[in-house]
Write a structure and sequence with these properties.
The chain is mainly alpha-helical and 384 residues long. It contains 20 helices and no strands.
Length: 384
């Protein structure tokens, strides 16, 4: 009987109920909210479902992120090995490969002025950098945090790993992906505040046709130019352009399909669950996390606002030929930000079609955020 009672007692004390803290329960509740938003509201479910589930797992069973060095038998937890691929910058680079293979760069090639809107939307990154230093973060931590303003999760993870800010990678990544998912909620009020109804109703001329040769040369030229100037951008810009070259050259359809489908979804599963698993209560529920979330929101808001304001300036210069709403798509949340530009424009005039025009700044924003990350790496003397 004593043996049975001892066995049952041991089993009972091995349940999570005896090992969780109040913080774990808070994070479990947050994970459930994220799952609700992803499933019921369909806020970027491909991102939020794996992130939320990783968050749920690590707060029920923290050892799922246990490193091999901390483990008694030398074998780490499952999600620890997924997370190493984040630290080594493998998964973020593969995400860029998939994005390149999925995205048509034609709108940017047809309207190169969109590079200005993509660059303008990175303004929030530099605002957040100085604010983060003011709030007590060191320069490398501030740089890693500021990239959230580009609404680019892979780049945020990439830069945090390169700058050695792995202790902050969880909050940074979750904030970045959360803001990417909440683009349809955060951006419209800023866009409407900074534009008039007349500006929102502006219809833009149809983009010129882009030749196949232009589409093939574009990723090659961008890779050569950008990587010669900033070699530190090679892992991100290089993979983005390689994926796009797969798409446009027309001779490697199998590689295009793999990069944009099977490989992309596998990477999203690994990256999403591992990012979510960095949000244990001990690592996430602290003052620094609150600061990071606030700084990320400020950066994202300023980036959106500056994109719209430069769009207004271009509207004036071109005598009403550019709808300022497309400037908000200069953040690198592809294609969510472009869809928001289309949605807000359609609310003002249901016959207005801005999606393809907004894709230009959106693609430029992806390149711009990668360049911003490469600039920080160059400043701190970090190699690729």
């Amino acid at each position: 009987m004593d043996y049975i009672l001892d066995t049952l007692g041991n089993l009972l004390h091995q349940t999570a109920f005896f090992n969780l803290t109040w913080g774990n329960y808070v994070m479990i509740a947050v994970a459930l909210v994220f799952l609700y938003l992803a499933i019921a509201k369909e806020y970027e479910p491909l991102l939020l479902v794996p992130i939320a589930f990783g968050m749920l797992l690590v707060n029920i069973y923290p050892d799922i992120m246990l490193s091999s060095e901390e483990s008694g038998n030398g074998v780490g937890g499952l999600l620890h090995y997924f997370y190493l691929l984040d630290e080594w910058s493998i998964l973020p680079s593969l995400i860029f490969l998939g994005v390149g293979a999925m995205t048509d760069f034609g709108p940017l090639i047809a309207n190169p002025k969109c590079f200005l809107l993509g660059a303008a939307a990175q303004f929030g990154i530099y605002i957040a950098y100085f604010l983060a230093i003011f709030m007590g973060f060191n320069d490398k931590a501030a740089a890693a945090i500021s990239i959230i303003g580009g609404a680019d999760g892979p780049t945020s993870i990439f830069l945090a790993g390169k700058l050695g800010q792995t202790s902050l990678m969880g909050p940074i990544a979750v904030a970045a992906y959360s803001y990417m998912s909440l683009v349809p909620i955060i951006q419209p009020p800023i866009m409407k505040l900074l534009t008039t109804e007349k500006e929102r109703k502006i219809k833009m001329e149809q983009l010129r046709p882009v030749s196949k040769l232009e589409k093939i040369l574009f990723p090659i030229v961008i890779t050569v130019v950008v990587c010669l100037i900033l070699p530190t951008t090679a892992p991100l810009v290089g993979m983005l352009m390689l994926g796009n070259l797969f798409r446009e050259c027309g001779v490697v359809k199998q590689l295009t399909e793999t990069a944009s489908n099977a490989l992309m979804y596998i990477v999203v599963i690994l990256l999403g669950t591992s990012v979510g698993a960095t949000t244990s209560a001990e690592a996430f529920l602290n003052l620094n996390t609150i600061k990071i979330v606030v700084l990320g929101l400020v950066a994202f808001a300023f980036g959106t606002a500056m994109g719209v304001l430069i769009g207004k300036l271009m509207c004036v210069i071109t005598k009403g030929k550019i709808n300022p709403l497309i400037g908000s798509a200069g953040v690198s949340a592809v294609p969510m930000a472009a869809r928001v530009s289309q949605k807000v424009g359609a609310e003002a005039d249901p016959t207005n079609f801005l999606l393809m025009h907004a894709m230009g700044p959106n693609v430029a924003g992806v390149i711009g955020t990668a360049v911003a990350a490469g600039t920080f790496m160059a400043i701190f003397g970090i190699g690729v």
